Amino acid sequence: MSAIHVGFKFGTGIVSADFQSDNLMGVLKGDFIEAPLPEEELTEVLRSIREPIGGLPLEKIVEPNQRIVIMVSDITRPVPSWKILPVLLDELNTYGVADSHITVLFGMGIHRAHSEEERKKLVGEEVYRRVYCCDSVNGEPYVHVGNSKLGTPYYVHQRVVAADVLICTGNIEYHWFAGYSGGAKAVLPGACSFETIRASHSRIGQENTEAGNLNSPVRQDIDGILDYMGIDFIVNVVIDDNKRILRSFAGDPIEAHRAGCAYLDSIYGREIPHAADVVVASCGGYPKDINIYQAQKALDNANLAVRTGGTIILIGSCQEGFGDKTFESWMRDANSPQEILNRIHIEFQMGGHKAASFAKVLVRARIVMVTDMAQADVSSAFLEYASIDQLQNKIDQYAQGASSVLVIPQAGSILPIVGQKE
């Protein structure tokens, strides 16, 4: 019986462990693409705009005297807007649209407002000088445009509703309860009121609210807004861990978005025959494991691969602890994970939604946290504590007698696609 040696990123270092080959399902890794040159990134964005997927070409959509609103992600998202926007603005100029007719609107959702320096950083100094840039949380009213099929009221920022042409930018990555980011998500939650966001996000924990699932009720709410207001054009990119643009998708908010989702799956989606008894997953090192709040993404992906009643061994330094006060208080105040899930349906709070994500996993699987955090803090979050020195022992403990063990060294990026989930 031979052993397989696997290294895991942990903080800024590397830790390793051995796995017996007799019950090892595999080690999941993505098809990581060689980084493009900077000029190739910009060429790719321009190509996508000129070769749209679905709908009309942008040149046929805009007219010189129209009011153009370009939705841009806020500072909590990894979108390289400073690369996308100069290409998009220059292309609009060639169609006769002056910079003075263009507004860049940061979709803040219910996040805090940006400082001016943050806005400049997001779009770049040149773009900030060229066009008017503002946050969606700027005191302007929200307009009720209709209700989703699931009953969510759509209150959308007035500037978005009043636009002659609405262009939405963003990136496509796995999202733990909307399935994927990108597409109409720029508007919901980006440009919607708290009432709308709370109603939609309260569906966390419902069936299909998981990464890679386009049937998520949250995604249904997101795409449903297109029944009441038009997104005329999207520019969505798939990026690597260093925010380099691998591929750009532009055009119709549904067709172009779905093409981007399929491309993401081709790089980071990995099929496995069935759910595993034990999943050993690393967040991917710093900054993905800087705190438990950030580690949640890796946990959610690992959850897709583990059977009900199984064990997830999550490897993450989390030197900064919980990473969010609301998240921490929700975990500490609860008597059980189910109590957290019950709470999120009646009292949506940012931070509380992360607690609900942990609770969703905890009601179906054991979580062992291999971490630098204090044992008392880990235990208060209903997790089983292990130090990094105990990693091999914990693997041996839970792998012994298990019929299947799956290893995911970069679980923050890899999406397990299970043929048969138990």
Q: Mind explaining what this structure looks like?
A:
This protein is α/β, with parallel strands linked by helices and 422 residues long. It folds into 2 domains: 3-30 and 273-418, 2-enoyl-CoA Hydratase, Chain A, domain 1 (Alpha-Beta Complex); 38-267, Rossmann fold (3-Layer(aba) Sandwich), CATH 3.40.50. Helix content is 32%, strand content 26%. Strand 15 (276-282), helix 10 and strand 16 (306-315) form a beta-alpha-beta unit. Helix 12 packs across helix 13 (352-362).
Short description:
With 422 residues, the protein is an alpha/beta fold.
Number of domains: 2
The beta-strand count equals 20
* Tally of alpha and pi helices: 15
Which overall shape is indicated by the principal axes computed on the Cα atoms?
A: globular
Provide the CATH top-level class of the largest domain. Alpha Beta
Query: Average pLDDT value?
Result: 93
Secondary-structure content class = alpha/beta
Helix content: 25-40%
Whole-number radius of gyration?
22 Å
CATH architecture annotation of the largest domain: 3-Layer(aba) Sandwich
Largest sheet: 6 strands, parallel
CATH superfamily of the largest domain: LarA, N-terminal domain
* Model regions low in confidence, pLDDT < 50 over at least 5 residues: none
| CATH topology-level name of the largest domain | Rossmann fold
**CA(first)-CA(last) distance:** 28 Å
Residues in β-strands, percent: 25-35%
Task: Using brief descriptors, characterize the structure shown.
422 residues, alpha/beta, 2-enoyl-CoA Hydratase, Chain A, domain 1, Rossmann fold, 2 domains, six-stranded mixed sheet, 15 helices, 20 strands, 32% helix, globular
